Structure formats: structure tokens, C-alpha cells
Amino acid sequence: MTVGLILILVAVLLGPILVKSVEHNLEPFFLALGALAALVGGQFGWHLVHEALTEPIGLTAAVLVFGALARLLRPQFDRAIQRLRAVVSTRWIYFTLIVTLGLVSSVITAVIAALLLVEAVAMLKLDRQSETAAVIMACFAIGMGAGLTPLGEPLGTIATAALKADFWYLMRLLGPFVIAGIVIMAVLSLFIPPIQAASLYAARPEEGWKEIVLRAVRIYAFVAGLVGLSWGMRPLVGAYIGRIPHGLLFWLNSLSAVVDNATLTAAEIGPVLTRSQQRAILMGLLISGGMLIPGNIPNIVAANRLGITSREWARLGLLIGLPLMLLCFAALYVAG
């Protein structure tokens, strides 16, 4: 059983990176491997099927509702950004965007927060380097903030379900660390030079209703597959991961820079872990997920929309992420 689960875990981690067809069809891939992991781990049954069908509902509904609202309210949002530009300097607009989107992403979802970020950045019309820096800092903030509730992103949904926790558990567990990280990103944005130029986002096609619905369906399938993977990996969590010190778990999860953090959450989080282990795993995932494009949903959304290359993202993402990891590690050590 252990060997089978390890092979499935390797396939889950490397498949999207090495195989293009898997990268473009993540939802059926995770559904299939989630079911297989549950079978191999001896966890498959009606209770798992019920969890896989019900756990994605909250996040899916949030993505659908706030996606529709973002489409309907786009003109008002555009006018608000234009009025803000007239009275506030660009640096403080970045600051406000990062703090606001970072904090509300746990409610409106990371996907919608990233779409709003792209829309706002496009209207500021700054040079490529400035916009890239602002987007990367904002995606760090959105990625961290979205992890505070089950509605924000799949990581929060899977962690809450795996720990059998209440809606606000992650807020209590991670809140001070995440809020500090969001504020740090916002303060760093004040040093971005506001150089006027053509925006990265030259064409701004309006998102159709079909795309909004399909995105919600994909999120539902993705989370359902992660639920199966999380259940299937429980024997590994109990036998191996639960024995690793929380400091080492924190650094091991820097792997989230190249693997979506929700996947690692499904593989690692379980009720046998202590609070310090849970906090170390999740903070390691949330921070390192911002360092490279594949690490987090908002990174992928923003990079695709704005045409930011992997090299551009890595150049600044690693420069920001590694010191932030060190700072968080020190805070975790003090917190015990």
C-alpha cells in the first residue's frame, strides 16, 4: 500500500510539470488519481464519495457568484479605479489594492481577486517592470489571504475538510502570520517607481458567461479530486509526515513554488498533525506558492492575462519569497 501511494504521489507532483496534456487537463487527472489513491489507501467508500461531492460546493459557489458579480460590476469598478487615480498617487493605489485584495480574497476567492487585480493594473498604464512587480507582490498577498477560509482557494477547502475543522479554524491558526505577510507586501509596493507606459494588458476582452460557468465546474472537479487524494494519503501522513519536526516541514513545503499548493495540502494535511505542524506546513505552502507561476492559482491567472514570463516572475518572486520564508520561519520558531 505504501509503495502504491508513494507512486501516486510522485505522479501527482510530476505529472502536471512533465506532461503537457496533463497540465491542460488537470481536473480529470486529479479526479482519476484521487479515486485511485482512495482505493489504494483503503479509504474508498460512501463517506468519501459524500465528502467529495459536498466539500467543493462552497468554493464553487463563491467562484460562480463573485465571477458573475465581477462581470456585471466591471464598469463601476473601472470608474472607481479612474477616480482613485485622479486623487491618489500610484504607489498608494498599489498599497490599497494589495491590502484590500489580500484580505478579501478569502471571501471572494483567489481567482476573482486575481481577475480584479489584472483589471486594476491594466488601468494604471505603467511600464512593464513596474506592473510586473506590483502583480507579483499582490499575488503573494492574495495567495496568503485566500488560505484563511475554505472559500478562498482549494488549499483552504482541503485543509479544513482534512482537519475536520470549523469555518474560522484557519483564520485562528494562520491569521497573524498571513496579515503580517500582506502588510509587508503592501509596504514593499510603495517602492515601485510609477513610470507611465503602455499596460501589459493591451487587450481587455470581456469574460463571457460560458467562461464563468466553466471555471466554476473546473474548480468543483479539481477540489473533488483533491478530497480523494487527501483521504487516500492518510496512511502516509500518519506513518511518516506526522513524525517530521515542524521546522523541517516548513522548508520541505518550499516545493510549492513549482507544485500547486492545494496538491501538497491534500498529500500532507491530516488530523494526526499538531497545531505547530499544521501551521508550518500551511505557511510554507502559502508563501512559497507565490515565488513561481505554477505555485498558486492567482499567479497562473495574472501571468496568463498579462503575459508575464516564468523568468520575469522568478527573478522577483524568489527575491521576495526567500526572505519572507526566513522571516516567517523565525516567527514560527518564536510561536513554538
Give the structure's gist in a few sentences.
The chain is mostly helical and 336 residues long. It has 18 helices and no strands.
Question: What are the key terms here?
Answer:
globular, 336 residues, 18 helices, mainly alpha
Walk me through what this model shows.
- The protein is mainly α and 336 residues long.
- The protein has one domain.
- The protein has helices at residues 2-18, 20-23, 26-40, 46-54, 56-72, 74-87, 90-108, 110-124, 128-146, 154-162, 169-189, 209-232, 234-239, 246-252, 261-268, 275-288, 297-306, 310-335.
- Helix 7 packs parallel to helix 9, helix 8 (110-124) runs antiparallel to helix 9 and helix 9 (128-146) runs antiparallel to helix 17 (297-306).
Q: What is the average of the pLDDT values? A: 88
Strand-pairing-aware structural class: mainly alpha
DSSP strand count: 0
How many helices in DSSP terms? 18
Topology:
Elements: H1 2-18, H2 20-23, H3 26-40, H4 46-54, H5 56-72, H6 74-87, H7 90-108, H8 110-124, H9 128-146, H10 154-162, H11 169-189, H12 209-232, H13 234-239, H14 246-252, H15 261-268, H16 275-288, H17 297-306, H18 310-335
Helix pairs in contact: 1-3, 3-12, 4-12, 5-12, 6-8, 7-8, 7-9, 7-11, 8-9, 8-17, 9-11, 9-17, 9-18, 10-12, 10-15, 11-16, 12-15, 14-16, 15-16, 16-18
